[in-house]
Amino acid sequence: MTSIEATWAIAAVATGGVILRPWRLPEFVWAVAGAIILVASGLLPARAAWAGVARGTDVYLFLTGMMLLAELARKEGLFDWLAAKAAMRARGSAQRLFLLVYLVGTVVTVFLSNDATAVVLTPAVAAVARAARAGDPLPYLLICAFIANAASFVLPISNPANLVIYGSHMPPLLVWLPRFALASVLSIVATYVVLRWTQRRALRSMIAERVEVPVLSGGGRMAGAGIVVTACVLMVASALGWQLGLPTCLAGLATAIVVLLRTREAPWGVVRDISWGVLPLVAGLFVLVEALDRTGVIDAVAGLLRAAIGQSEVLATWGAGIILGLACNVMNNLPAGLIAGTAVQAAHAPPLPTGGVLIGIDLGPNLSVTGSLATILWLSALRREGQTVSAGTFLKLGALIMPPALLLALGGLFLTGLFLPG
Known about the structure:
Helix content: over 70%
Strand content: under 5%
Shape: globular
C-alpha cells in the first residue's frame, strides 16, 4: 500500500468512526485517533499536523463562545421559557404550536448556530410537548433537526461550516445578507412547508390550551440580553470584515461572567456541561484534511472546480451545490466542508460558485442522520428524551424535504447573482 493509499484509508476509517460511532465511542475519539496515527506512522509530519490544527483557531474560538452562550441560556431556563411561551400562544392548536416552535428554532439557529438548536432547543421542545399533552411529540422534535440546517446560512454565525468554507475571506455582513437573503428565505419556507405536510396527520389533534410557563430568572434575562448583545457585536464585526471567532468567544466569556456574578454561582457547573468534545473533533478533522491535502486530492478538486467555472459559472454553482449536498450525507458536512472550503480558496472561486458550495454544505445534510454534526447531536439529545428516529425514517423524510429546499435555495442564489454579480 502506498503512502497516499494509506492516508486515504486512515482518513476514511476515522471519518466513518465519526459518523457511525462504533462501540459508542465519542466522535472526537475517532478524529483525534486518525490524526495521531497519521503522525505516528510518518504519513504526516508533526509540523504539518500542527499547522492543520492552527488553521481551525477561529472555529474553536467561535464554538467556545457559542457553547458558553447556549449552556448559560439552557441552565438559566431561557429556552424552556421561550418554548413554553410558544405553547401558550398556540391556544390549543397543534398546527399553531408547530409553526411557533419552527419560528423559535429559526431564531435560535440564526443567532446561536445550528448546533445550539440541536443540543439545547431539543430538550426544551420535548418538555413543552409534554406540558401541552401533545399526543405525539415527534413532529415538534423533528423541527429541531431540520431547521438547524435549513436556516444555517442566514448569517455567517449560523453554522461553524460557514467559517470553514470562507476561512479568512469571510464576506462582510452587508455583503453576506443580500447575497444569501433570498436563498435563506426559500430554504426555510420550503423546509417548513414539506415538513408540515409530512406531519399533517399527527398535527390534527388538539393540545392543552394552558401550559405552565416557568418564571424567567434574572440570570435567564441576562443570558438573553447577552445573546442579543453578542448578535449585535458579531454583526458589527462581520460588517467590518473581522474574523468572528475572537469576538464570539469574548462575548460568551463576558456574558458568562456577568450571569454568574448575578446568580452567585460557581462556573464549574456551566463548564462541566458544555460538550467540549466538539473542539478536538474539529481539530482532528482539520488534521485529516491537511493530510488529504498533501496527497493532492484538494488540488484535484480545486482543478475540477476551476475547470467547471471556466465552462459555466452558473452550471458550476448548481453542480457544486447538488454534488456537495449529497456528498455531505456520505462523509458528514464537517470534513466535506473542510475539503470544499480549502478547494474553493485554492481555486479562487468567484462569489456565485462559492455560495453554491456553502448552500450544499449547509443544507444538504437534511437528507440523512449522518449529514451534519448538528443532526448527530440532535439524535443524542433525542435519545435522552426517550425518543428514537431510525436512519430509514429520517431518510424517507429527508428525501422529501431536502431536495426542493436545496434546489430553491440554489435558484434564489442564482437570481440574486443576476442583480448582485459582484
